[in-house]
Structure formats: structure tokens, C-alpha cells
Amino acid sequence: MRGWRSSRSGRATACSLADTIGVGVPAQVTELTAAVREVSAAPLRAHFHNTRNTGYANAVTAAANGFAALDASLGGIGGCPFAPAATGNIATEDLAYLLNRSGLATGVAVAPAAETGAWIGQQLGLDKVPAQLGRAGDFPGDRR
């Protein structure tokens, strides 16, 4: 559940924690963050799948623990061909909605992102994409 991106000097330029089979829970994200911080001050990023409905909770926990980047995909489309039952990535539009409404500005306009995720799904011949925002719509009002 660890990955390092190194520069030519051999120093870690970023550390990425990934849960491509969607079995992690927020307590593990906190625990792994602390373990990584003991050995590196490199910026952290995370990649979560929502296979068991924990991907968004893990992403919020990562954000609370100071992660610099969170991977997501429009529509929640994708998976991992090497991981058993990996049903999909967390959706960009759903994650941005959650973070924006929690007061963490993402810079993502959720309505256009949801439209794009649905469009990509149509191009792929999917009846519907895993993302929820495209079906539920944005909620009016700014929480900030």
C-alpha cells in the first residue's frame, strides 16, 4: 500500500498510498500516514477505490492528514485489471462535491465534471457511471 516517486538524486519527491482493491478504512489511512511521516517529509498523495464504500471516507481522512493530492476519475470510471473485484475509482465530481462542501476548495466545478463523467460513460457504452452526482445533481448554496 505504498509507492515512492523518486527524483534523480534518489530522494523521494512524493509518496503515494493506494488502495486499489478498496479494503482500507480511515484508521489505516491515519496509521499509514504516521508511519510514512516517520521516514519522509515528501508530499503525500492517495489513490482509493470505492469497492466497499470506504473510498470517500479514506479520501477525507487523507485530506485531514495533509495529503497534497487525491487521485480520482470522472464518473468513477475505471478499476484495476490486476485487483480482484476492484469495482472502480472514487469519482472526481463526488469527491470534489464532498471536499468543497466541507470547506476545502478543490478548484473543480462539480456540475461540469459530472456532465463530463456521464458523457464519458456514454462514449464507453455504460448505462450509468458509478458517480452519484450526475444522477443526484449539485446541492445549491455555498458552505464556505
From TrEMBL:
InterPro entries: Aldolase_TIM, HMGL, PYR_CT. Keywords: Lyase, Metal-binding. It comes from the Bacteria. Residues 1-114 form the Pyruvate carboxyltransferase domain. PROSITE patterns: PYR_CT. Belongs to the HMG-CoA lyase family. PANTHER family: HYDROXYMETHYLGLUTARYL-COA LYASE (PTHR42738:SF7). This is Pyruvate carboxyltransferase domain-containing protein. It comes from Paractinoplanes rhizophilus. The lineage of its organism: Bacteria, Bacillati, Actinomycetota, Actinomycetes, Micromonosporales.
